What does this fold into?
Amino acid sequence: MEPVKAGGNGRVSRPLLARLFNPDVETLSPAYFGMVMATGIVSLAASQIGLRGVAWLLFGVAGVTYLILWGLTLLRIKRHPRRVFLDLIDHLRGAGFFTITAATGILGSECVVLANWVGMGIVLWWAALVLWLVLTYSIFTAFTVKTQKPTLDRGISGAWLLGVVATQAIAVLASLLAVHMAPPQRIALDFISLSMWLWGGMLYIWLMALIFYRYTFFPFSPSDLTPPYWINMGAMAISTLAGALLIKNAQEAGFLHSIAPFLKGFTIFYWASGTWWIPMLLILGFWRHIYMRFPLTYDPLYWGAVFPLGMYAVATQRMAEALELDFLHLLTSGFALIAMAAWLLTFGALIYRLVRNPG
It folds into this structure.
């Protein structure tokens, strides 16, 4: 790191300012929008336990971060288009681009839930849908037609489940918007939400089978247990949230009401699957950092571990309301507080990294 210099008037030297305002974006992680995902959902988790001030503060952080990351991403596309393309078709890094779609959907959900900005929610929903279409068929087509492919143990990780999260983020926002629409548009949004919810569930089953197979039948080192493995739980948590919103919308949508038992059964199925992962991931984290002494340092991928904690709190709360399971409310409050603590730790580590290495 180059030294920080200051003149007699206390102004920061030109080299440091150049790095701050003209950052090196070549190696920017495609998954950095996970920070927006994590901040947005922790904001909603804070709101549901009565911390409205914290919720609005995090809402502002999510919005500003979203704009900054889009600026950096566009700058990276302009300066390093080949590097961006190689990341897009890379088995380990490509799935990180799905954080852009998920972040757009979650930010839209914040606009609707916290601020009642339905118009902005609609704009972000359409943006998320277009991003989902482009990224889904670009990434999975590239993975399919590549001539040189990694083996399963080197080519798949929990980050692949970000495709599920992106899909369910669109379903969640569609359900939230449907409540504010007239019957024709409302039915269409509920149908799209149901379709995306079902597709996200099917994609999870496909991918989780491969991930679990990789877990149990290939050598597993501490470096293999990257933070996005928490998406194993987070993908089920957001699927639970989407299902809970569909159950609530079924009161006004006849076609949803006719399949209400199916919606309720699968929503609990998703929640139970996600809950099963929590102890498993904690045990693996203990094995990685305590038993194997793998260093715990800041990585943008850690936002992918904060997001599932906040999503579990919000999803459990919504499911408890939809199914009248009042005994779950204590669980939602506990996870909301845990998610806020995890967000603070990760954000603090980010600030420390930026101070140590500006630009």
